[in-house]
Amino acid sequence: xxxxxxxxxxxxxxxxxxxxxxxxxxxxxxxxxxxxxxxxxxxxxxxxxxxxxxxxxxxxxxxxxxxxxxxxxxxxxxxxxxxxxxxxxxxxxxxxxxxxxxxxxxxxxxxxxxxxxxxxxxxxxxxxxxxxxxxxxxxxxxxxxxxxxxxxxxxxxxxxxxxxxxxxxxxxxxxx
Length: 176
Ligand SMILES: Nc1ncnc2c1ncn2[C@@H]1O[C@H](COP(=O)(O)OP(=O)(O)OP(=O)(O)O)[C@@H](O)[C@H]1O
Fold this sequence. Notes:
alpha/beta, Rossmann fold, 6 helices, 9 strands, 35% helix, globular, binds adenosine-5'-triphosphate, Nucleoside-triphosphatase
């Protein structure tokens, strides 16, 4: 049975750091997916950049982007989800090769504005592929349904466990 792990955490608790460290520890896995990180300017957060595991980067959201959609102060460029985030997820679920692992950071309000992304995530969770995804702690019908799935392990990321989680998860995912 494939391993599906959701890493839930409050904003800024360290979810992206956990999945980046995890990816660096996964020597036997072919990791496909993306992470999102904040862009800071003069100490203030001004946007978010999306980076694929293959090294492609683009600004997903920025205070200077007009939107729509807008999430808080940020205009979101949904084209970035289509161009960068989706192809890897769709390819991985279409052909769930042995050793492949999907990494998604994160299932958050900005990313979930894309209906195509939601559909790609649904495919990943329906297919027999291992997946690790970070997820916001907000209540939301799409992510609430994923969290309720009996085949999903929901792990809450806290300041107390964020340093040990990458190693624990790597051990779980490498010994297969
Ligand atoms: N294990 C850690 N030890 C020390 N600092 C950390 C650790 N993990 C994260 N941080 C710091 O906390 C901040 C937020 O980390 P990170 O971006 O990983 O959190 P996040 O939960 O993904 O945030 P967001 O909700 O904005 O996506 C960063 O400045 C990061 O350097």
